[in-house]
Specification:
Chain lengths: 375, 542
């Protein structure tokens, strides 16, 4: 079926849009927290091993980002789940069957990740440094288990490796999703992106502290994994080219080509600015003013990247080569979803974003969460 | 009934997840009341111990919230992951409550973060206001989730459909569903032996089935749901406040520092009022609703293998001391009065054998026509009697659990009044309390309070744990009362239904939650030591 023949009703478009919005917001938050979590854990441990108080203070200051953002980030994961089940029940029913193993991995990772963040923060100074560092690594590594599971769904929607086995009337093996030719390049692209973004966000926040050493740490991770993206990004692009023609055409020659070009320009800009900033802190021990914008630029790239990773599937929910499975195939026809309800919910979610942003501003910019442990 | 292999394992797994979630939800709901009371006392007196106590409870609340969120996620994902048949219900009956719950969850977190960030930085009354808004959203969340659970106990909007199979069941509200489609799906499940997931995961299945629910807000119209909301939320508040009470009374007992008694005095009245109204008012209405809407559950609670008279229970449950406690004998007799077959029942709704085959074909279900004929010729009375027989072995356990829960509630109720008599000057009560306390604690004030709070906590825990057991086990043999069996909503993934998977998942859930609870204990009980490294660095900087 060509995309021109696919009919998308307003309700289906609303479902697709709300899902896309929730995914984008969630991805922006987790791009901050996964990288920041890893860098914090590493430096908390290094502080302990090297008896370096400054590194411990760095870790604690950086971790404020996690304490403020992680739970709110998790909310958007829940929102994605409810939107998926509510608007696309058939897709969830299918995913919980053929992707049972990856989804289990993601759930277990979430279960370890979220409490370990709160435990890491609130036990700081109350347990031994060694035990605390161990909790830090558990916290950091469990975060990467979440995309290890959930990215299989994104991969399947772009190239239905496992789903096609099911649609052919067979039962795919438990780990089959991990043999997808698209999956691992997507996962690598994701992991490098979040660590790089985490580094740049830390660099931006540490500019406010005016500490050259701390900015340098953020830049180091940001640049290192941005360079790694120069391999992972093209590799993912090539797998999209070979496995998901419809998406490839949409982002290379179709309506999403300008956004893709913009993303590439921003990546180049980020690389140049961050290298210049890096040389400045390394050689001159001075922080260039624009360094504080590196985090926002990195987040904008993440936003664009995720948008052009998902939106070009439209009007399909899953792509099959040059066409796909229309949104209607998995849409909820069990009842008429009241659009007014969806708009009310979106209104309140925007309100929660405003409250959260205010809290984050107080915590991170105004320094309401202090690095000193209060007993 | 569909193949039920592994269903019992997964029911146990779900129970573990739900019980852990219940602990954290109780703290999530109960602690803010204590924190607000302490902040209010601080704003009135300026005594620093109130602020310090509020801070400790806030830190515990923060760790607890993370655990509550992940166990909530587990329960939610668990629902769609191991019970994917419920996806059809989530996409219809539960859509409005769960979608509205997103409002509650997102704002709950936003305001909790704002509260934590601003505590001590803004005036106490502003902190109370922020936490108050958080608490309202937390209660709203509890309301919505309880509405979903209540619908599974009393499926409002299906009217007389369950009663067609089980004549002893009442009418569940107005008819808001397409009865023909629901019955067709039920017969297809029985005839195919497949879980619902096999049907709804097929592309276009939803389109083929079409509209099954006409009123998306139907779950909110049930009286049973609203009584359950009050019952569950008050129970959670009581458990949460009891945990805070136990913590401070333990500190009082160990340190003999009277400041802890002052802290308890600040929030104890809230707990006392809730403990007094829960069994006498809310619990009573809950019982009345269970007796009417869940007659089989009520018979199990009362151990009514056969119908009997008990004027007290008759009066409390039915408002008439002469009303009998209806037992399983009456249910069986009622089943036997049904003379029609499932096929005739389907026919009465305009569903023929050919219709069913056509629907099955459209849904891509390979149906054995011989098996379909067997199902259609099955007597309704056989289904009804078979289901009753399947729950009969559970009567004793539910009956014991129910009366142990009542016993726990009574212990908590009496202990709460005695503690009030010790903490405040109440005519008559205080003199009785102090005499008893002299016996219990041998004149040791702190020890007496600690013992009474242990009794409250134990009584409350018994009532909460067993109350939920009765609610859920009493719902069996159905997942959705009178309509759907657990085996019909279970996952199709074979290894998920194995004992090994249950052990693996249980071990992870228990390990994470026990570690989390231990961390909460450390946060609450240890003084923070500003690490030497950090201290050295900061001194150097100064």
């Amino acid at each position: 079926m060509s995309s021109g023949e696919v009919v998308v009703t307003p309700a289906q478009l609303l479902g697709f849009t709300v899902l896309g919005l929730a995914v984008l917001i969630h991805i922006i938050f987790v791009s901050i927290t996964l990288g920041v979590g890893l860098i914090t854990a590493v430096y908390r441990w290094l502080a302990y091993k090297r008896s370096d108080g400054e590194l411990e203070l760095f870790a604690r200051k950086a971790f404020r980002l996690m304490i403020v953002t992680e739970l709110f980030s998790g909310v958007w994961g829940t929102i994605i789940t409810v939107v998926l089940v509510g608007f696309f029940p058939g897709l969830v029913a299918l995913a919980t069957n053929v992707l049972f193993t990856p989804i289990t991995i993601a759930i277990v990772s979430i279960m370890i990740r979220i409490p370990s963040i709160a435990i890491f923060w609130y036990t700081w100074g109350k347990i031994s440094e060694r035990a605390h560092s161990t909790i830090g690594f558990i916290m950091a590594l469990s975060g990467f288990g979440v995309p290890l599971g959930f990215r299989t769904l994104f991969s399947e929607l772009s190239y239905p490796h496992t789903i096609s086995v099911f649609l052919a009337g067979n039962t795919p093996p438990l780990w089959y999703a991990y043999t997808s030719p698209l999956y691992w390049s997507l996962y690598a692209h994701t992991v490098f992106a979040v660590i790089s973004t985490g580094g740049f966000v830390i660099a931006s926040i540490m500019v406010l502290e005016n500490n050259v050493r701390w900015v340098e740490i953020g830049l180091k991770y940001g640049i290192l994994f941005l360079l790694a993206q120069l391999i992972a990004g093209p590799l993912y692009y090539l797998t999209i080219y070979s496995r998901s023609t419809y998406i490839f055409n949409n982002i290379t020659f179709g309506p999403y080509a300008p956004l893709f070009a913009l993303k590439l320009i921003l990546v180049l800009l980020l690389l140049i600015l961050s290298l210049y900033s890096w040389f400045s802190v390394r050689r001159r021990k001075t922080i260039i003013g624009y360094t504080k914008y590196l985090g926002p630029i990195a987040l904008l790239i993440v936003f664009l990247g995720e948008f052009i990773n998902n939106a070009p599937r439209y009007p399909y929910i899953a792509v099959l080569g040059e066409s796909g499975v229309p949104i209607s195939a998995f849409f909820n026809f069990y009842m008429d979803i009241p659009a007014s309800l969806v708009y009310v919910i979106l209104g309140f979610l925007i309100f929660s974003i405003i409250v959260f942003t205010f809290a984050a501003y107080l915590a991170l910019i105004r320094g309401f969460i202090v690095e000193k442990i209060e007993s | 009934m569909a193949e039920s292999l592994g269903v019992e394992y997964l029911l146990a797994l779900s129970a573990i997840g739900i019980y852990f979630h219940a602990i954290f939800v109780s703290i999530t709901l109960g602690f803010p009341l204590a924190i607000m009371a302490l902040l209010f006392a601080y704003s009135r007196t300026g005594a620093s111990e109130y602020m310090r106590a509020a801070r400790i409870l806030t830190y515990v609340l923060a760790v607890n919230f993370a655990l509550g969120a992940i166990t909530g996620t587990l329960v939610e994902f668990g629902l769609v992951q191991v019970w994917p048949g419920t996806i059809a219900a989530i996409a219809s009956f539960f859509f409005a409550p769960l979608a509205l719950e997103l409002i509650a969850f997102a704002n709950e977190i936003a305001f909790l973060i704002l509260f934590i960030v601003t505590l001590g930085r803004v005036r106490p009354m502003i902190s109370i206001l922020i936490l108050g808004v958080y608490w309202v959203f937390a209660v709203y969340s509890g309301l919505l989730i309880t509405t979903v659970n209540s619908w599974m106990n009393v499926p409002w909007g299906v009217a007389t459909i369950p009663g067609a199979l089980y004549p002893f069941l009442p009418e569940y509200g107005p008819l808001a569903v397409d009865a023909q489609k629901l019955v067709a799906l039920k017969i297809l499940l029985l005839a195919s032996g497949l879980p619902l997931q096999e049907i709804i995961q097929t592309p276009e299945a939803s389109n083929v089935v079409g509209i099954i629910l006409n009123d998306p807000y139907i779950a909110f119209y049930s009286l049973y749901a609203w009584v359950s909301v009050a019952h569950n939320i008050v129970a959670a508040l009581i458990v949460g406040l009891s945990i805070a009470l136990l913590g401070f009374s333990y500190r009082l007992y160990k340190s003999k520092d009277v400041k802890y008694a002052q802290i308890i005095r600040v929030f104890y009245p809230i707990l006392l009022i809730l403990i007094l109204i829960q069994p006498t008012i809310i619990g009573h209405y809950m019982g009345v609703n269970v007796a009417y809407y869940n007659p089989v559950k009520f018979a199990m609670m009362e151990g009514a293998y056969t119908t009997y008279h008990n004027p007290i229970i008759g009066f409390l449950a039915y408002g008439d001391p002469n009303h009998p406690i209806i037992g399983f004998d009456r249910f069986y007799a009622s089943c036997r009065e049904q003379t029609i077959t499932l096929g005739e029942l389907a026919n009465s709704l305009g569903l023929t054998r050919e219709n069913l085959l056509e629907i099955s074909n459209n849904l891509g279900i390979k149906l054995d026509t011989q098996r379909l004929d067997n199902v259609l010729s099955t007597k309704v009375s056989d289904v009804c009697i078979g289901d009753l027989k399947s729950v009969e072995p559970k009567i004793r356990a539910v009956n014991i659990a129910y009366y142990t829960k009542i016993f726990g509630g009574v212990i908590a109720f009496i202990s709460a009044i005695l503690l009030a008599g010790v903490m405040y000057r109440i005519p008559l009560v205080s003199s009785i309390s102090r005499r008893l306390v002299n016996i219990i604690g041998r004149g040791d004030y702190a020890k007496s309070i600690f013992i009474l709070t242990i009794l409250i906590a134990l009584g409350v825990a018994l009532a909460a744990v067993l109350g939920w057991y009765v609610r859920e086990v009493g719902r069996k043999p159905w997942t959705i009362y009178g309509l759907i069996y657990p085996s019909e909503v279970v996952t199709v993934v074979d290894y998920a239904r194995t004992l090994e998977f249950t052990i693996f998942a249980s071990a992870i859930i228990i390990a994470i939650n026990v570690a989390g609870i231990y961390a909460m204990y450390i946060v609450a009980s240890r003084h923070a030591v500003f690490t030497q490294l950090l201290e050295r660095f900061l001194s150097g900087r100064r």
